[in-house]
Amino acid sequence: MSLTVAFSVAPASPDPDGSYAQAVAAAVRVVRESGLANETNAMFTNVEGEWDEVMAVVKAATMAVAAVSPRVSLVLKADLREGVTGALQSKVTSLEKHF
């Protein structure tokens, strides 16, 4: 099953400097090193691939944050469509045609 996921993972409390960036960067690093199609924006990281691959990456990214925080927040939204690839770009391309 093809899957596009938007997820956000963060520690429950910030670093001593008030930032979440270091822990979130560890999660994004896992995603980028996965080899799956992905993009990161100000709110979410999007990942595209087959169900088991994507969910394994989400779990590994979450565990990267859990390694530095005893409590982790995870928000996940998924779009499942059999046989669809390139959705990260094609959805935006389709939308832009209407402007």
Structural description of this entry:
The protein is α+β, with helices and mostly antiparallel strands and 99 residues long. The protein has one domain: Alpha-Beta Plaits (2-Layer Sandwich), CATH 3.30.70.930. It has three helices and four strands, in the order E-H-E-E-H-E-H. Strands 2-3-1-4 form a four-stranded antiparallel sheet, covered by helices on one side. Strand 2 and strand 3 form a beta hairpin. The chain is globular.
Main sheet summary: 4 strands, antiparallel
Portion in strands: 25-35%
Distance between the ends: 31 Å
Summarize model confidence as the mean pLDDT: 92
Outline of the structure:
It contains three helices and four strands. The protein has a single domain, classed as Alpha-Beta Plaits, CATH 3.30.70.930. By secondary structure, it is of the alpha+beta class.
Task: Describe the SSE topology.
Blueprint (H helix, E strand, L loop, with lengths): L1 E10 L9 H13 L3 E4 L4 E6 H16 L5 E9 L6 H10 L3
Structural features:
39% helix, alpha+beta, Alpha-Beta Plaits, 4-stranded antiparallel beta sheet, 99 residues, single chain, 3 helices, globular
